[in-house]
Amino acid sequence: MGPKRVFLSALLSGITLGALYFLVASGFTLIFGLMRNVNLAHGSLYLLGGYLGFEIADRTGAWLLAFPVVVVLVALLGVVLQHLVFRRMEGEELRQTLVTIGLSIVIADILLWIWGGKSYQILTPDFLAGPIDLPLVTAIRSDGTAVYLRYPRVRIWILIAAIVVGVAMWRVMTRTRIGMLIRAGVDDRDMLAASGLPIQAMFVLVFAFGAGLAGIAGIIGGTFQSLAPGEDTRFLLASLVVVIVGGMGSSPGAALGALIIGLAEQLGVVYAPTYSVVFTLLIMAAVLAFRPQGLLGRKG
Hints:
This protein is mostly helical. It has helices at about 5-35, 40-60, 65-85, 95-115, 155-175, 175-185, 190-195, 200-225, 230-245, 250-270, 275-290, and strands at about 130-140, 145-150.
């Protein structure tokens, strides 16, 4: 494999990995960045969504059916968490942190008990299986014909899905009444509550939506990677880094942070595998040192 082909493959892999990180972090940035709820069980919601998606797709053979079912189930769990945990601990970040760490451990043990320590992968549906030729020339043959980069079709569609989710979230939060109410409720909850609006119901819906996004990301992650114990911690840490780099409460920031972290990981694995993790930590440290609110975050 030539150096140009290696670079283009690593570049695309970084972009598509960033797309997956964004799908996980987009729900996390709603819950943590906008609502100031420290939900360290978010990675467990990702892994639970992946396992449920595997079971549904495996038993029914319908990959697409897994999405609405998983969204509803994981969102309901999010409603339970918001009602039983976060509603009783509003503004108490330390208690939220400790409680959700405990919840993540409990959920991880339950998942290990049900699905064991094996690695699972959700089978790619036929219409997404196989590679696709991208209009990226990697070499020229001796007869003058071009050699194009072949890349897994499913990863391209994951990238498209992440773009659609990102644009939709940005439009909802900045161009709709419900988005403005959510942002106003975060900035001044007492004032908005005095206007007679159901703040708690609105925040429960936001929490459920963020949890549902984590479930969707679990299905997608299980399709082109794998599902195994420990993936919940990996994606929770990735979400934290993405939110720190991009900026809390900013969907465009989460997208930018996910892209940067995804590229750093994949290019690091290819060109400096010994230091690939260090690159991510250096990026986070640099952002915290020079722009602690994140690249696209707001001050204060």
